[in-house]
Amino acid sequence: PRPAVSVLGLGLMGTALASAFLKAGHPVTVWNRSHAKTGPLAAQGATPAGKAADAVAASDLVVVCLLDNGSVREVFETLGDRVAGKTLANLTNGTPQQARELAAWAAEHGARYLDGGIMAVPHMIAGPHAYVFYSGDQEAFETYEPAFAALGGARFTGTDPGFAAVHDLALLTGMYGMYMGVLQAFALARTENIPAAGLAGPLTEWIGAMLTGIGQDAEAIDSGEHLTDVSSIAVNRAAIPNFTATFRAQGLTTAFFEPLQELLDRAAEQGHEADGLSRLVDLLDS
Ligand code: NDP
């Protein structure tokens, strides 16, 4: 029989997680701060719990997905030692530091702790492209790996409970950086009445082509050998003023490109003009 799972938090994501566990045949108990959200899951076969403590008592595996780790801490405090002997898998987005603190709290209260970063939006859960980064108690991960498979892939990143958050934040950092550029691209096109739909195809193709260089950047960063035969700091540094000048002329902000110009200037001053853009990673310390 599949192990029982309790899900705390039935927002968009928690609901998708609970539903996936149900579909995979797990007995599922659900709790949410506003009780009404348990309704649709109860209709699918889940047992609604009136209190978080009742949900925790119902299953050895407790999956948590709330707004943020402040909320998680609040709910955990109401549970106290009732988490003893349980595995808490907290899939709420947070910082590595928060994950380490929650792991310490769980240890003090006799629970095993796993932190997780969900690399999917709710409708992707249980589909072929969804996966979750986990970190923390490796034995707990191995025990429940087959259960986690109900959500999609399960990737263990290390016994340091902060590692899932590091991986999650790193991937999302790449995404947000790309997204900022995409928005600026649409804004620029719009200043000349080019509809977004007209730019979407070429933009997708171009970003896709550029993404194929990530592996080469990674090699340069790990080896510290940034000399390039692709595109140098010097040539990029010469090009960036064309962007900022155009943005200014078209009435757009230059705010997102000024830091790039500053990094390129600094890299050049330090004698790295022949290196590739991967060199800039060394200049990002605060
Ligand atoms: P929602 O806003 O849909 O749900 C938030 C949930 O948190 C609700 O169940 C809400 O309860 C609960 N909550 C908020 N504050 C408290 C509190 N103080 N005490 C108890 N419960 C509280 O968010 P999502 O489900 O979309 O996201 C949940 C987590 O999953 C977030 O950390 C998010 O970053 C992460 N995530 C979400 C993704 C997405 O695409 N949606 C993708 C990857 C990760 P109530 O119903 O009572 O308000």
From TrEMBL:
Residues 5-153 form the 6-phosphogluconate dehydrogenase NADP-binding domain. SUPFAM superfamilies: NAD(P)-binding Rossmann-fold domains. Signal peptide: none annotated. Pfam families: NAD_binding_2, RedAm-like_C. One of its GO terms (molecular function) is oxidoreductase activity. Gene3D superfamilies: N-(1-d-carboxylethyl)-l-norvaline Dehydrogenase, domain 2 (1.10.1040.10), NAD(P)-binding Rossmann-like Domain (3.40.50.720). InterPro entries: 6PGD_dom2, 6PGDH_NADP-bd, HIBADH-related, HIBADH-related_NP60_sf, NAD(P)-bd_dom_sf, RedAm-like_C. Keywords: Oxidoreductase. Residues 160-285 form the NADPH-dependent reductive aminase-like C-terminal domain. PANTHER family: CYTOKINE-LIKE NUCLEAR FACTOR N-PAC (PTHR43580:SF2), OXIDOREDUCTASE GLYR1-RELATED (PTHR43580). Belongs to the HIBADH-related family. This is NAD(P)-dependent oxidoreductase.
